[in-house]
Amino acid sequence: MSTKLRSRTLKATSTWDRDTAPETQTKTRRYKKRITAGWTVFGKHRDIFKGSIGTCLNRQVYNSCVLPAMTYGAETWTLATQGKNKPAAAQTKMERSMLNITYQDIKSNIWVREKTKVTDVIEQVRRRKWTWAGHVSRIGDNRWTLNITTWKPYERK
User: Quick one: where's region Disordered (predicted)?
Assistant: First the structure.
Protein backbone atom coordinates (compact mmCIF):
# COMPACT_ATOMS: atom_id res chain seq x y z
CA MET A 1 0.00 0.00 0.00
CA SER A 2 1.42 3.34 -0.94
CA THR A 3 2.11 5.99 1.66
CA LYS A 4 -0.32 8.41 0.07
CA LEU A 5 -3.18 5.90 0.13
CA ARG A 6 -2.33 4.81 3.67
CA SER A 7 -2.41 8.40 4.94
CA ARG A 8 -5.80 8.95 3.31
CA THR A 9 -7.28 5.88 4.97
CA LEU A 10 -5.80 6.88 8.31
CA LYS A 11 -7.31 10.34 8.02
CA ALA A 12 -10.71 8.88 7.33
CA THR A 13 -10.62 6.62 10.38
CA SER A 14 -8.72 8.82 12.81
CA THR A 15 -10.36 10.46 15.80
CA TRP A 16 -8.43 13.69 15.55
CA ASP A 17 -11.44 15.89 16.23
CA ARG A 18 -12.19 14.04 19.47
CA ASP A 19 -8.67 14.08 20.81
CA THR A 20 -7.55 17.56 19.83
CA ALA A 21 -10.80 19.44 19.43
CA PRO A 22 -10.99 23.01 20.66
CA GLU A 23 -12.71 23.53 23.98
CA THR A 24 -15.85 25.00 22.41
CA GLN A 25 -16.43 21.91 20.30
CA THR A 26 -16.00 19.75 23.38
CA LYS A 27 -18.55 21.82 25.30
CA THR A 28 -21.03 21.68 22.45
CA ARG A 29 -20.59 17.92 22.17
CA ARG A 30 -21.10 17.56 25.93
CA TYR A 31 -24.31 19.60 25.83
CA LYS A 32 -25.64 17.63 22.86
CA LYS A 33 -24.88 14.34 24.59
CA ARG A 34 -26.76 15.33 27.74
CA ILE A 35 -29.69 16.74 25.76
CA THR A 36 -29.87 13.51 23.76
CA ALA A 37 -29.87 11.55 27.01
CA GLY A 38 -32.73 13.71 28.28
CA TRP A 39 -34.75 13.15 25.12
CA THR A 40 -34.09 9.41 25.34
CA VAL A 41 -35.47 9.23 28.86
CA PHE A 42 -38.34 11.50 27.87
CA GLY A 43 -39.16 9.15 24.99
CA LYS A 44 -39.13 6.13 27.27
CA HIS A 45 -41.71 7.82 29.50
CA ARG A 46 -43.71 9.32 26.64
CA ASP A 47 -46.83 7.31 27.51
CA ILE A 48 -46.80 8.94 30.96
CA PHE A 49 -46.23 12.44 29.61
CA LYS A 50 -48.81 12.13 26.82
CA GLY A 51 -51.44 10.44 29.01
CA SER A 52 -54.09 12.08 31.12
CA ILE A 53 -52.30 11.48 34.42
CA GLY A 54 -52.00 15.12 35.38
CA THR A 55 -49.30 17.73 35.52
CA CYS A 56 -48.36 16.95 39.13
CA LEU A 57 -47.26 13.40 38.30
CA ASN A 58 -45.74 14.55 35.02
CA ARG A 59 -43.65 17.02 36.99
CA GLN A 60 -42.51 14.33 39.43
CA VAL A 61 -41.51 11.95 36.64
CA TYR A 62 -39.73 14.74 34.78
CA ASN A 63 -37.83 15.97 37.85
CA SER A 64 -36.84 12.47 38.95
CA CYS A 65 -36.01 10.87 35.58
CA VAL A 66 -35.42 13.34 32.77
CA LEU A 67 -33.72 16.15 34.67
CA PRO A 68 -30.99 13.94 36.21
CA ALA A 69 -30.26 12.49 32.77
CA MET A 70 -29.85 15.99 31.34
CA THR A 71 -27.71 17.31 34.20
CA TYR A 72 -25.42 14.32 34.75
CA GLY A 73 -21.89 15.62 35.15
CA ALA A 74 -23.09 19.23 35.15
CA GLU A 75 -20.72 20.09 37.99
CA THR A 76 -17.96 20.58 35.45
CA TRP A 77 -19.93 22.57 32.88
CA THR A 78 -19.07 26.17 32.20
CA LEU A 79 -22.27 28.10 31.83
CA ALA A 80 -21.46 30.27 28.86
CA THR A 81 -24.27 32.06 27.09
CA GLN A 82 -24.03 29.70 24.13
CA GLY A 83 -24.29 26.61 26.32
CA LYS A 84 -27.09 27.90 28.53
CA ASN A 85 -29.57 28.12 25.71
CA LYS A 86 -29.27 24.54 24.47
CA PRO A 87 -30.49 22.63 27.57
CA ALA A 88 -33.07 25.32 28.32
CA ALA A 89 -34.48 25.13 24.79
CA ALA A 90 -34.69 21.34 24.99
CA GLN A 91 -36.47 21.59 28.33
CA THR A 92 -38.98 24.06 26.91
CA LYS A 93 -39.70 21.70 24.00
CA MET A 94 -40.24 18.84 26.45
CA GLU A 95 -42.58 20.95 28.56
CA ARG A 96 -44.62 21.93 25.50
CA SER A 97 -44.80 18.27 24.53
CA MET A 98 -46.05 17.39 28.03
CA LEU A 99 -48.86 19.92 27.66
CA ASN A 100 -49.56 18.99 24.01
CA ILE A 101 -48.85 22.58 22.96
CA THR A 102 -47.07 23.60 19.78
CA TYR A 103 -45.46 26.91 18.95
CA GLN A 104 -48.42 27.73 16.73
CA ASP A 105 -50.64 27.84 19.82
CA ILE A 106 -48.89 31.10 20.74
CA LYS A 107 -48.28 30.39 24.42
CA SER A 108 -45.29 32.04 26.04
CA ASN A 109 -42.54 30.02 27.65
CA ILE A 110 -43.36 31.67 30.98
CA TRP A 111 -46.96 30.47 30.71
CA VAL A 112 -45.76 26.95 29.91
CA ARG A 113 -43.41 26.99 32.92
CA GLU A 114 -46.22 28.17 35.20
CA LYS A 115 -48.38 25.26 34.05
CA THR A 116 -45.77 22.51 34.37
CA LYS A 117 -43.84 23.90 37.37
CA VAL A 118 -40.84 21.69 36.60
CA THR A 119 -37.39 22.52 37.95
CA ASP A 120 -35.42 24.73 35.59
CA VAL A 121 -32.46 22.88 34.11
CA ILE A 122 -30.14 25.89 34.40
CA GLU A 123 -31.02 26.38 38.07
CA GLN A 124 -30.39 22.67 38.65
CA VAL A 125 -26.97 22.96 37.00
CA ARG A 126 -26.09 26.00 39.13
CA ARG A 127 -27.22 24.23 42.29
CA ARG A 128 -25.13 21.16 41.46
CA LYS A 129 -22.08 23.30 40.68
CA TRP A 130 -22.32 25.06 44.05
CA THR A 131 -22.84 21.76 45.86
CA TRP A 132 -19.77 20.32 44.13
CA ALA A 133 -17.71 23.42 44.93
CA GLY A 134 -18.64 23.09 48.61
CA HIS A 135 -17.71 19.42 48.55
CA VAL A 136 -14.32 20.12 46.99
CA SER A 137 -13.59 22.93 49.47
CA ARG A 138 -14.23 20.60 52.42
CA ILE A 139 -11.91 17.86 51.16
CA GLY A 140 -8.75 17.57 53.22
CA ASP A 141 -5.26 16.80 51.98
CA ASN A 142 -4.86 13.73 54.18
CA ARG A 143 -7.12 11.46 52.14
CA TRP A 144 -5.87 7.92 51.74
CA THR A 145 -6.87 7.88 48.05
CA LEU A 146 -4.66 10.88 47.35
CA ASN A 147 -1.81 9.37 49.36
CA ILE A 148 -2.00 6.11 47.43
CA THR A 149 -2.14 7.69 43.98
CA THR A 150 0.75 10.08 44.65
CA TRP A 151 2.87 7.59 46.61
CA LYS A 152 6.41 7.07 45.40
CA PRO A 153 8.20 3.93 46.52
CA TYR A 154 11.43 4.18 48.42
CA GLU A 155 14.58 3.86 46.38
CA ARG A 156 16.43 0.62 46.83
CA LYS A 157 20.11 0.75 47.63
Answer: 1-27
